[in-house]
Amino acid sequence: MAFCPGMPWGAAYPNNKIIGGLLEELTNQLETMDPPAAEKRSCTLENFGPEIVYDHDIATLTMFEMLKGARVQVYLNATAIEPVMHKKNIESVSCFDRNGPFTVKPRIVIDCSGDGDISAKAGVPFTIGDHNGNSMGVTCSFHMIGVNWKEAFAESDPYFTKYTAKGISEGRIHEDLAKLYLMKGFHQDSVFCNSVHIRGVDGTDPMAVSLATQEGRRRCYQLAQFLRLDIPGFSKAYMTQLSPTVGVRETRKLEAIYKIKGEDLANGTKFSDGVVCCDNPIDDVMRDKAGMTHEAVVNNGNYYTIPFRALVPTNIQNLMFAGRIVCADPIAFASVRGMPQCMTMGQATGTAAALALRDKISVQEVNRDRLVTELTRQGVHGLGNNKLN
Fold it and tell me: CB–CB of 104/354 below 8 Å?
């Protein structure tokens, strides 16, 4: 969301029911504003359920207001560098900001960084990408403002392939743009463009990310010019909200007590320690070639849950992780990585941290039934014996 402003919150409604928790609290706040700053919409892409579109700036402001309301002390523009270990615990984490180095001495660390740097340096084993080391493509997104929706979305082809084939053959857009992912933005006559993906980028390498960002912006500008000249409805539109850096889908997947497998998803497994529901398709984006998949992972009306054990390392007693560094095989990862699921994984690990601190136990010893009960009390839907309907 930070790197691709306006990216819809997909996979928010498995079985057409919102997953609940902090995501629902945030969405309710946005939807009830005057005027509303978010709404539920159907996704135009195959096998994706309803999603939440929103005003990016208002949503960002609201998130920080929620943090303030929860008395969270936020350190922006600070970087965590290195953990210091004492036996099986992270004793401290060295950090720095513009004033220089400083040290944090945490009781519990929750790594929600997306790349798992601190967890990896603490000794948690990990894999990168698929079995061949290939990670999904990174993305540079933008909006077009001033689009005539009626003209732009008049044809039945959601990917605009008739136009892109011509643009590629003429060398005016990149060959990987055979399918365009153009979605109506939250505001009238705005279009969110989630089309420019760069393959073969190591998201843990800052220089590779920097070069990919430069290339992505170049392709975005080229595509924006193509839209204005070739696609009906775009002739008076202009580009805005270009990604500040590429959005990285996949780097490290950390080793945990349990690894989520593709067959768990296909079977619609509802784990006893499940902390969030999901029915997202296998959304695999240009991992090793130009193609993308949107294969359904469960039958209509079914869903699976993500187990808490996939967020807990085996040995380090005061560390958990959440988000796209979840322990999952490549097939499962392509589904579990949705933003709503990442948000709720964070809620689950935060709740588990509170339980561990209260009972003075390691994170591995947290009573999982009690955790599920507490998340259900907080409004997370479909956990334990409660059906998502």
Answer: no
